């Protein structure tokens, strides 16, 4: 075998036709795996050495790797500016998103402090800003309100006999629920990360995540309507809770607080205008205007000096205690009722983290370890659970701000944490008069990125309608079924679309492209022509138990050979022949007994059947004739062939394919027989199955392939497999697929090898058209 380079871009190959056995011998297939045994791998994983210990420690605590190499000259200034900018943004977001989580605002500041420090130590992304996030906050809020509704904390006022809400007791329980959920979520993520289970996020496709985020954003908007209009509404949980909430909001709209609406409109106008200006002048300003911080400062001053709370009943955030709270162990007794919520919110937070991390990692040229990210987020939530924080995630607005202001390392998180700490220790109490409507406006304005994802709809409509369906179903499920159940339903539907797509693959008949060794879909390429007598069949997806029968049906439809009809007619013909033979024998016995002669007719007369043999040729001679004709297949390939036998029996010669005088009568795809203008033979003697798209072989695949071999052999059609990957061949061997009736020599490396083997096997002298066709092939093959 040699390869000779003729001209640039062309090659010439001369080699023998190779089946699987020849290829194993030529390439010297290994008799044993080069992969270490399980016992050796376990020993190696347990073996400890100083270099291995160092790698493990540096991998588990990335700060030990990047901090000693930190360049103060190159990175310090950018990190300082970015850290201050992100820290300023943490303050209003922490206060606002705490209200989404249904906990007092100060706990949002705690969430912007402790987990951020932990991520600086264990995280691998240099650019994401972890902390409070709208979607995870609303998920925590759904859990806290479900387990601690307002109705559980109503007390009777002894003075006037009315029911009063015990806000202090309610908030204490809700903080405990949020902390326990956060802690349990962290345990899930940490354990999954330690067993290298970071790939779990791959089950959340990009359309699913974006649709889920958009649906969660709609829930966030609905949850902020009461603060925007200054009304009090009921709390709802479970499926259709958002529908009930919207109805309740509409019912209470007549009670709207005009002062709260005015505050809302002014705050929204200022925030939207300045945000748009920041975007417009992004390249001209070193840092964007911190409009959120400016808004809460100005709003607090106006509220304080105008007595908005006491005079106009405008709701304010209330007391913000100074200092940090001591750590507190989570309430383990709550885990049974929050386990599903904890897992869901943890996976969602991790999915957002790894998505943003990989985006900015690719942008700046470094890798983000998905498993270490899962460990890092898990540790952030575990530590946060001890300090009454709620679940954290990377925030897209803060992350974009950190990148645009020149942040280059995790030092940005440390600087922003210091700023948040100063606010908690000294400045927090100054914002007790801040209207909740302003925080709601900050939440809404920062959801702009989520709602921009509605632009995905026209894009997905053009590119992939299955992904569009996943996006829309996820959006609807998230809104109607709530965040936890909606996430599970969306994942289930997304997996169903994958299964459904394997049920609708593209089945193709391949033809040869003249002048090349290529075989392409005849429906797609005009120059791809079928080789007479050979049908090459390919599926665009792997064959397994859910589509094995569909594969078989498509093979019959595309090849034009109705195997069931043929086998039924063959069986019927064999039965008829046996009955005739038996009848002839009985008749011969009666004649012999009547004439008293051993089977001879009187006067040396010739038996009528023998006379027929003399005139038309004996059946035995007839069986050694080859009846192969060229068939012009319709473009769409939708032809079925019914079997009509006018001669005798099937038989296979040593070198030829189909023998016998077996006539095929055309049946169209609508079932009509004998279509006008179309009577021909089905001259197929070989079917080649291209399994290059198959990546595994389950029991259904093995059974289907066996049936194909056995059934088509009964009607004298050879079956060959091509393009099988090594793992597929091994699985077929393990399933005892190969035997005397199905030898391993029926496997070929390429379609071209199988075609040339079939042409040689069926004799070029009998089919000169096919032989001439073979000589035109580009790759010269030594026969």
UniProtKB/TrEMBL annotation:
**Is Membrane tagged as a keyword?**
yes
Q: Where are the transmembrane segments?
A: 183-204, 258-281, 293-312, 332-353, 374-395, 407-425, 469-500
InterPro entries named among the record's database cross-references: S04_transporter_CS, SLC26A/SulP_dom, SLC26A/SulP_fam, STAS_dom, STAS_dom_sf
Q: What Gene Ontology cellular component terms go with this record?
A: membrane
User: Where mainly located?
Assistant: membrane
Q: Where is the signal peptide?
A: none
Query: Domain STAS spans what residues?
Result: 524-758
Q: Where is the composition biased (Basic residues)?
A: 580-592
Q: Name one GO molecular function term.
A: secondary active sulfate transmembrane transporter activity
Subcellular location per UniProt equals: Membrane
Task: Recite the UniProt keywords alphabetically.
Answer: Membrane, Transmembrane, Transmembrane helix
Residue ranges of region Disordered? 573-617
Membrane topology per the record? Multi-pass membrane protein
Ranges of Basic and acidic residues compositional bias? 607-617
Among NCBIfam families, the record links this protein to:
sulP (TIGR00815)
Name under which the protein is recorded = Solute carrier family 26 member 6
Whose protein is this, by species? Oncorhynchus kisutch
């Amino acid at each position: 075998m040699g390869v000779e380079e003729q001209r640039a871009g062309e090659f010439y190959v001369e080699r023998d036709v190779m089946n699987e056995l020849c290829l194993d011998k030529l390439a010297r297939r290994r008799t044993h795996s080069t992969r270490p045994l399980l016992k050796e791998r376990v020993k190696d994983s347990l073996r400890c050495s100083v270099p291995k210990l160092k790698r493990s420690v540096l991998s588990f605590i990335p700060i030990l790797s990047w901090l000693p190499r930190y360049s103060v000259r190159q990175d310090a200034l950018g990190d300082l500016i970015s850290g201050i900018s992100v820290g300023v943004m943490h303050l209003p977001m922490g206060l606002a998103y705490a209200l989404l989580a249904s906990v007092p605002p100060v706990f949002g500041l705690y969430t912007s402090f402790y987990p951020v420090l932990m991520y600086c130590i264990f995280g691998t992304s240099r650019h994401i800003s972890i902390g409070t996030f709208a979607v995870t906050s609303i998920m925590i809020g759904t859990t806290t309100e479900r387990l601690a509704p307002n109705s559980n904390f109503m007390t009777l006022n002894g003075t006037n006999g009315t029911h009063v809400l015990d806000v202090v007791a309610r908030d204490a329980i809700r903080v405990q629920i949020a902390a326990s959920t956060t802690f349990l979520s962290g345990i899930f993520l940490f354990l999954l990360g330690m067993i290298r289970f970071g790939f779990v996020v791959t089950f959340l496709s990009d359309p699913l995540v974006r649709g889920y985020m958009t649906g969660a954003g709609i829930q966030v908007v609905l949850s902020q309507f009461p603060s925007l209009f200054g009304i009090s509404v009921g709390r709802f949980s479970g499926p259709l809770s958002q529908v009930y909430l919207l109805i309740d909001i509409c019912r209470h709209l007549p009670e709207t607080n005009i002062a709260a609406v005015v505050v809302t409109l002014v705050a929204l106008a200022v925030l939207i205008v300045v945000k748009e200006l920041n975007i417009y002048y992004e390249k001209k300003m070193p840092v964007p205007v911190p409009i959120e911080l400016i808004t809460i400062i100005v709003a607090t001053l106006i509220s304080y000096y105008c007595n908005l709370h006491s005079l106009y009943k405008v709701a304010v955030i209330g007391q913000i205690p100074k200092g940090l709270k001591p750590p507190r162990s989570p309430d383990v007794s709550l885990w049974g009722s929050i386990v599903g919520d904890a897992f869901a919110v943890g996976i969602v937070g991790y999915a957002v983290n790894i998505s943003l991390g990989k985006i900015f990692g690719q942008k700046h040229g470094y890798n983000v370890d998905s498993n270490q990210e899962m460990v890092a987020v898990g540790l952030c939530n575990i530590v946060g659970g001890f300090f009454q924080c709620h679940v954290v995630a990377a925030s897209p607005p803060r992350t974009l701000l950190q990148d645009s202001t020149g942040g280059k390392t995790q030092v940005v998180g440390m600087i922003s944490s210091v700023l948040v700490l100063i606010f908690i220790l000294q400045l927090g109490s100054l914002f007790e008069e801040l209207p909740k409507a302003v925080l709601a406006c900050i939440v809404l304005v920062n959801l702009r990125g989520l709602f921009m994802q509605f632009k995905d709809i026209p894009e997905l409509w053009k590119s992939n309608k299955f992904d569009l369906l996943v996006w829309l179903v996820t959006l609807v499920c998230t809104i109607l079924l709530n965040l936890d159940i909606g996430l599970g339903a969306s994942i289930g539907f997304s997996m169903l679309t994958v299964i459904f797509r394997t049920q609708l693959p593209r089945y193709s008949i391949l033809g040869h492209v003249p002048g090349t060794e290529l075989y392409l879909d005849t429906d797609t390429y005009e120059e791809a022509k079928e080789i007479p007598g050979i049908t090459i069949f390919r599926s665009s997806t792997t064959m397994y138990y859910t589509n094995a029968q569909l594969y078989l049906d498509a093979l019959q439809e595309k090849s034009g050979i109705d195997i069931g009809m043929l086998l039924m007619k063959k069986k019927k013909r064999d039965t008829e022949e046996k009955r005739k033979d038996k009848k002839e024998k009985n008749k011969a016995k009666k004649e012999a007994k009547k004439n008293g002669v051993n089977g001879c007719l009187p006067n040396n007369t010739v038996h009528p059947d023998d006379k027929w043999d003399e005139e038309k040729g004996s059946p035995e001679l007839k069986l050694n004739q080859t009846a192969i004709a060229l068939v012009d297949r319709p473009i769409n390939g939708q032809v079925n062939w019914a079997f009509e036998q006018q001669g005798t029996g099937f038989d296979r010669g040593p070198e030829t394919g189909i023998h016998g005088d077996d006539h095929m009568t055309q049946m169209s795809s609508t079932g009509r027989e004998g279509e006008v203008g179309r009577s021909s033979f089905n001259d197929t003697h070989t079917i080649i199955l291209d399994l290059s798209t198959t990546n595994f072989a389950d029991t259904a695949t093995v059974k289907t392939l066996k049936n194909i071999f056995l059934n088509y052999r009964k009607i004298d059609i050879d079956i060959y497999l091509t393009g099988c990957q090594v793992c597929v061949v091994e699985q077929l061997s393990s399933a005892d697929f190969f035997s005397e009736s199905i030898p391993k020599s029926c496997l070929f490396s390429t379609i071209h090898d199988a075609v040339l083997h079939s042409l040689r096997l069926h004799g070029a002298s009998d089919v000169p058209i096919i032989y001439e066709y073979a000589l035109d092939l580009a790759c010269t093959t030594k026969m």
